[in-house]
Design goal:
18% of the residues lie in helices and 24% in strands. The protein has three helices and eight strands; from the N terminus they run H-E-E-H-E-E-E-E-E-H-E.
Length: 202
């Protein structure tokens, strides 16, 4: 991958999305080859409208992920708050809150579907930035959710595997008719939660 390239998104079913990704050796972070791959990953995120993206989603076997609410991503998640752009290399989640929240998650690698997914509301994480500097942060709300979603990619997990029930996975287009859903379908909180918004109800 060159830095000018915009690689295609790898889709569910591809082997790389099922695999645990290898850590990036610290000494390679400043190399030209790494910089080009990182630039290509940024291009793919911007082109596809992702609120986050992970290296295996473009066929790159590495524990690297990006967060950031692009203009295109805002169309997919109209209620999403600002998510600062960040590069995370070899991220590790050290703690999860006992409090949880729910949201309609989608994924560039799982086109056409959304999932009603429960995740911890707050996490603490550690990793490195694109210069190899150590990052330690506490994240909450929607940013914490995006971080967990992308970190899952690095361990071969896609959001449908996080669903509690098969009825919590729906066609993306159905969200346009939320106002017509039965109050309890698929759960009480789901009907009133727009993409990008969070709910504390199951």
């Amino acid at each position: 991958m060159s830095e000018q390239s915009t690689p295609e998104i790898v889709l569910m079913g591809s082997r790389i999305l099922l695999e645990t990704q290898p850590e990036v050796p610290t000494q390679t972070i400043g190399t030209e080859a790494f910089r080009q791959k990182l630039s290509a990953l940024k291009n793919a995120q911007a082109s596809a409208g992702g609120i986050g993206i992970a290296a295996p989603q473009v066929g790159w076997s590495a524990r690297v992920m990006l967060l950031g609410l692009t203009a295109a991503a805002k169309k997919r998640y109209p209620q999403a708050p600002a998510v600062p752009f960040e590069v995370w290399i070899n991220p590790v989640i050290h703690s999860f809150s006992t409090e949880t929240c729910w949201a309609w998650e989608g994924c560039l690698s799982v086109p056409g579907l959304r999932g009603w997914i429960e995740r911890p509301s707050t996490i603490t994480a550690r990793g490195m930035d694109e210069k190899g500097q150590v990052i330690k942060k506490t994240l909450d709300g929607f940013t914490a959710r995006v971080f967990q979603h992308e970190a899952d990619h690095l361990d071969g997990i896609l959001f449908p595997q996080r669903a509690h029930n098969t009825r919590h996975i729906i066609p993306d287009d159905i969200l346009a008719n939320q106002g017509e859903w039965a109050d309890e379908w698929p759960t009480p909180g789901a009907r009133n939660t727009a993409p990008g918004a969070l709910s504390v109800l199951p």
